[in-house]
Amino acid sequence: MSELSIKHLLGIRDMTRDDLELIFKTTSEFKEVLNRPIKKVPSLRDLTVANLFFENSTRTRLSFELAQKRLSADIVNFSASSSSVKKGETLVDTVNNILAMKVDMVVMRHPHPGAPHFLSKKVKTTIINAGDGTHEHPTQAILDTFSLREKLGDDLEGKRIAIVGDIRHSRVAISNILALQLLGATVRVCGPATLIPKHMSDLGVEVSHDLDETLIWADAVNMLRIQLERQGGPNSIAFFPSIREYTIGFGLTQQRLDKLDKQLAILHPGPINRGVEISSEIADGEHSVILDQVENGVASRMAVMYLLARQ
Predict the structure, then answer these.
(1) Would strands 186-190 and 206-208 be described as parallel, antiparallel, or unpaired?
(2) What is the pLDDT of residues 90-120, one digit of tens each?
(3) Any residues with CB less than 8 A from the CB of 155 and at least 6 apart, and which?
(4) What are the structural domains, with CATH classification, of the chain?
(5) Is 308 in contact with 4 (CB distance < 8 Å)?
């Protein structure tokens, strides 16, 4: 297979296993490019990419921008906080005005689930979903599964992967579950009952509220941030009694890992709440894949944009 079966990257739900394998193969090639003295290739030299971020982002936005520059694309950056959206302009009008400037590809983050899907039906350009509300974050799942393959081996069939934390408010969790299942892995979500949606079991994943037992079960663990901003603000603890109590029950610490008779691959999509869902010594430890995820994020986003541009 040399082409993707999709014209947009809206979510993992739309993809096949062959799509993922092609992206992984291309990611490996671009990772080699990034380790050369000259890290730039002319693959998208004639294309203009617009980054439309209607929601705050640091890592994802920087990763996409760097990937675009490494591919030699021209870049237009758009921020909703300083745009005509504040004056009442619709999403479609905003994007159509940008496309009138001859933009070839749009990378979009939006707080409303389904916004990229809606836009893909209204405009004639390639759309890449950089996160839509609590729905999906497909490129994060791609870089996470690529990082897991580097750590556990190319075949994730039968591997046990735990996703721990705020599942309810996480777009990363859903995309990771779908990608891991496409690759044949067994997935378990773990966290307080209040932070795990009731529909999780319908997705074919195991559900646990016991972190210590889950660590014994798992080959790798992906720790998610408590998203207080989606729970009503930094002072909101409606989903658990206190931050301290959450950490006691579901925080990954060295003490917990010392009880195991094996080594776990440890992932985190960031940003990290150090001392809450994961301790600093674990985040910075030898079994952490966190910085590998950051590096792989640039290469995998290069792969996605390159392959979609060929469609």
Answers:
(1) parallel
(2) 888 888 888 888 899 999 999 999 999 998 9
(3) 184
(4) 12-136+297-309 (3.40.50.1370), 138-293 (3.40.50.1370)
(5) yes
